[in-house]
Amino acid sequence: SLTLRAIEDSCPNLTKLVFTSRFRGSVSFDFNFERMAAHCPRLEELAVTAIDLPNERYGFGPHFNDHAAHLPSFQRLKVLRLISLSNCISDMNVMMIAASCTDLTTLEIPNALNLSDGSINQLVDSCPNLSALLADGAPCCGAQGLDVLASIAPRLTTLSLKNWTSSETSLWFLPQCAQLTRLNLSGISYGLTDDHMVEIGEHCACLNSIVLNRTDISDVGLASLAKCAWLNELAAHDMPYVKGWALGAW
Length: 250
Prior knowledge:
alpha/beta, single chain
């Protein structure tokens, strides 16, 4: 808490702040985003990447949503990564962030249990520069949210939809993501087909990373990705229809 106060008081021109330490035991750590935004008005990147979630034992758990409500105070934010605190962020928090932080280009909320199609729609409507969305494990996001993402397909560079609910038709926009460099479709067991991989191979020339773990893609789909000349990372674990012959295409 004292460290954060020192930063706020001494660094009014701070543009990037990353929390990476792990706090154990009864630690007094003050996530006062409202005060921080007032003292660091030029902050453009905020990341909470490796902090153990505060819990009720230490008196923080029930209160973090109150602090998250002040995230929209960072109106100059371009990059927001809430890796360790994602399950504390409500759908309303995301809508408020989108409405206030209209310069946002990157939003990363793994384990996004509280996200809905409505918050995806708000992000797309309010953030015209949004190009990277990592919202894994969002059980309330589905075909409607994917249709909204289709409207910004040409500018998407990073997209992670791990464990989303989809249909074959709702993923039709993927080949239109011509600038896409990173794509995670892990755990999408329904609606993702080899035909999608063929189209991605044909049209996503910038792709350098794709994750397809626990999907029904076969060797046919994997082999078609060999057309992505810049692809240097392919994750393909627990895929029952892959027999291995696709490796010969690389």
